[in-house]
Amino acid sequence: MRARQGRSAGLAMFLIALLVISYSLPIAANAANSKSTTVWSGTVLLPDGYLVGAQDVLIVQEGTTIRLGSDEDLTVDGRIMIEGTEDDPVILESILGKHDGIIFNQSSQGLGSSIENLTITDAEFGITIYGSNPELTDIIVQNADRVAVDLFDGATPTINNLEINGGGQDVHGFSSSWRYGIGLSVGANSAPILNGLNADGLITRAVNYWGNSGGLLSNLEISNISGATLAVGTGIWIEDSRPLITDVDIQRSDNGIFVRHITDGMYRGVLVEQYNHSQFSNLPAHAVFDDLTIRGTGGVDAKTSGLGFSAFEVNTSGVIVDNALIEDNPVVGFKAYLIGSSTIINGLELNNNGKPLPNTPINDRAGLFLRSVNWAPVINDLVVTNSTGPGILLWKGGAMGHDWWTSNNGASGVDFREFHPQVTILRSLDNAGHGVSVRDSSNVELSYVLTSGNGIGSSLPETGAGLNWSRRGYRQ
Under a CB-based contact definition with an 8 Å cutoff, are residues 218 and 192 in contact? Predict the structure, then answer.
């Protein structure tokens, strides 16, 4: 009896010791075909990757470290729940080389996957979603080579507090593809809901929209997006898509927002263009801006100062702008080529804009510059002050507007050249040149015009009058 009890006690101690040793060692997980719920904790080694089956559930507990093999991924066909906390996040890293992160396939749509407090390092791709809708909360991606979060095939995730630090530096100069150093990429009819993005130090883009995608993005802080050589580097790129983006702050980026429509900053704060410039007779409004502020494009605080082109530029396209402030940019404040009636601007204020050097072209020193304009964009409630050259320079075409104020500019307050304006209430005060200059223009319709204090330092009336009308070879 005593011998039997001794053997039982020894066996129990052996089993307890075996359990303790097993718990302290890393888990080597392999894909399984059985339908089950799996729980991970501690350190999980995945040298060959892992597949969550279509009817399986994977739960990753707080503090877990997941280590993937080189070029391997954690693929989700079923449901995954990553339960990290602020104090004890889940870590996804590489055993050796770079891994391909977490991939959600379309079969995981609607199954309730969620990821909380996950930090991803050593990745080529962070999280890739094909046609699924996981909920991502408090995600940090550190220096992913290609794309931190990549959406395809109608993906509709909900994302709260996404932080992306660096991206593309390790492959810059070696990659044969332009698609690297990207934070959040939304494409192929995808439409995320995102609240809170902090993206810093990416090579190519913080937000990359393409392929008829949409969604709601709010509270974006973007900085230091610079260095791309194979594609346009910009804080936000929108191509053939219609997202609603609110509350955006972009600092020290090659371009701030770049909107391009294809039918077949350091450089610019905002650029909206139709890629095929021959489509000048088809100019729909491709972007809507509410309560926009642009400062310092190409200025001393830019990534590389002195290289700016424009603060806001539209080319062969159309925009709708409500309440914009563009100021303190050592480049032309608002520039547009080949725009038409789809462009409607209500409430535009331009202060302290224009190239500072006197030998630069006059259009680069203007606060507002329009060239080759189809009839007729509408500009209401316009204020232009302290431009290094003319306040408002309109050259070839026509436009309509109401309530324009221009003052203290380095040349004429308003300069019409081969232009047909239709403006009601125009006030031009204290400009270095003419209050209003009209050159080689016909069908000029100006009502309720006030000029005062213009051309005070001019030696001749021809260089500083309240109203000056002239044509080539003749002046009156």
Answer: no
Looking at residue 17, its pLDDT comes to 45
Neighbours of 358 (CB within 10 A): 10
Distance CA 401, CA 399 (A): 7
Q: How many angstroms separate the CA atoms of 433 and 447, rounded?
A: 21
Where on the phi/psi map is residue 206: left (φ > 0), alpha (ψ -120 to 50), or beta?
Answer: alpha
Distance of alpha carbon 15 from alpha carbon 201, whole angstroms? 52
If residue 217 lies in a helix (H) or strand (E), which one and from where to where? strand 216-223
CATH of residue 38: 2.160.20
- What CA–CA distance (Å, rounded) separates 278 from 263? 11
Q: 214, 238, 253: which is the final residue of a domain? A: 253
User: pLDDT tens digit string along 165-218?
Assistant: 999 999 999 999 999 999 999 999 999 999 999 999 999 999 999 988 999 999
- DSSP string over 45-81: EETT-EEE-TT-EEEE-TT-EEEEPTT--EEESSEEE
Write down which residue in 253, 273, 295 finishes a domain: 253
pLDDT in tens, 269-300: 688 877 555 555 555 666 788 888 888 887 77
Is residue 14 assigned to a domain?
no
The structural domain count of the chain equals 2
CA separation, residue 223 to residues 22, 133, 406 (Å): 46, 28, 33
- The torsion angle over the Cα atoms of residues 470, 471, 475 and 476, rounded to 10 degrees, is -50
Same domain, 73 and 169: yes
pTM listed for this prediction: 0.69
Strand 474-475 to 467-471 pairing = antiparallel
